[in-house]
Amino acid sequence: MSEIVRTAEELIEKGRKAQSIFEAYSQEQVDEVVTAVAWAGYSNAEYLARFSIEETSMGLIEDRVKKIQNKTRGTLRDLKGALSRGIINIDVKTGVTEIAKPMGVIGAITPVTNPVATAINNIMVVLKGGNAVILASHPSAKKTGMEVVRLVREEIDKLKAPLDLVQTVEQPSKDLSQEIMHRADTVIATGGSVMVKAAYSSGKPALGVGQGNAVVIIDPSANIDDAVDKIFAGKTFDYATSCSSESSIVVQDAIYGEVIEKFKAKGSHLVSLEEKAKLGATIWTNGAINGKVVCKSPEAIATLADITSEEALKAKCFLVEEEGIGKEHPFSGEKLTVVLS
Asked: Which of 12, 146, 215, 320 lies 20 to 30 Å (CA to CA) from residue 44?
């Protein structure tokens, strides 16, 4: 038996023992544990934000704190009052009774771009259902994942809940993640398309979130000031670490100039054709997004692309004009950077 298989089996076994105890918890007890997880994330948001940025060199501290707190609070709001134990609904008309049953041990694969907010969210949702979770962080964010789990276990320990309800992989790798996915009862995967495809191919029920490429259409009927404010905020928040942040905008000719000027007024830089070529060669290497530009500051990206104009170096966001879509027009796709096409 290889070390990878042994590690996966040990984690699964510990998770099953903890989950068998947790399965007997009442709805009130489950909700207390979920709230404890939320508190671990919310109260340590600034510490975990700094910790994750120091490890991954991705993100903006003040935005990451907001993200952790807002995502945690939002998840708790959504889960509050929801029934997840025993009988949750009786349809008298059809005679159907709905009974909630835990799925068991769930493997959660989390990305380097959001190693804290995604982890806390996954843990809360998994525990709400009466399950145990094994967190498999991206290798470049493994210390952050371990720290999240340490803080969560501290909080649930205060409630005397089984600590192995929440575990993490100390030395994450692609092979170990796949072993966990094969052995877990269900998989939650957040990351690149390759990882999500692996989750869907694991032979187990899987929920995957991969690439994002949000496109916004602005037409003359829109409140242009409001639209630009919101798009700019979404594009620059935490240096575009969220795959749901705006990636491209489609603007009608009648208001095109006005929209561009309003973006410029907020600190965006409309790149020249020469700068566009340099950006493209820097953002994509061999058809894939260059990890060196993902979730980095505009100044860092400009420097890496050898774009030296003062306006570019001071920009908060880059605007790139693009008329086509598809592989021949890479700026029309996902970028995970502070670049808006």
From this structure: 12
Give the CA count within 13 Å in the CB-facing half-sphere of 244.
4
Beta carbons of 291 and 111 less than 8 angstroms apart: no
CATH topology for 3-209?
A: Aldehyde Dehydrogenase; Chain A, domain 1 (3.40.605)
Element (H, E) at 190: strand 186-190
Cα(341)–Cα(327) distance, rounded to whole angstroms? 14
The average pLDDT across 330-335 equals: 88
DSSP H stretches of helix in the chain: 3-22, 27-43, 45-56, 61-79, 117-128, 142-157, 174-183, 193-200, 224-236, 253-265, 273-283, 298-304, 310-313
What pTM value is reported for the model? 0.91
Written as one string, the DSSP assignment of 19-59 is: HHHHTT--HHHHHHHHHHHHHHHHHTHHHHHHHHHHHH--S
Q: How far apart are CA 56 and CA 67, in angstroms?
A: 16
Per-domain residue ranges of the chain: 3-209, 214-340
The DSSP symbol for 141 reads: G
Contacts of 304 (CB under 8 A, 6+ apart): 282, 292, 293, 296
Give yes or no: 243 in active site: yes
**Residue 23 — left, alpha, or beta (φ > 0 → left; ψ -120 to 50 → alpha)?**
alpha
Phi then psi dihedrals of residue 62, to 5 deg: -65, -35
d(CA 88, CA 65): 35
Of these residues, 124, 196, 243, 279, which one is catalytic?
243
How far, in Å, CA of 58 to CA of 239, rounded?
Answer: 8
CATH of 214-340, one of 3.40.309.10, 3.40.50.920, 3.20.20.300, 3.20.20.140: 3.40.309.10
pLDDT above 70 (res 1)? no
Between CA 83 and CA 123 the distance in angstroms is 17
pLDDT tens-place string over residues 67-108: 999 999 999 999 999 999 999 999 999 999 999 999 999 999
68-78 b/e (C-beta count within 10 Å ≥ 16 → b)? bbebbeebbee
pLDDT in tens, 159-169: 999 999 999 99
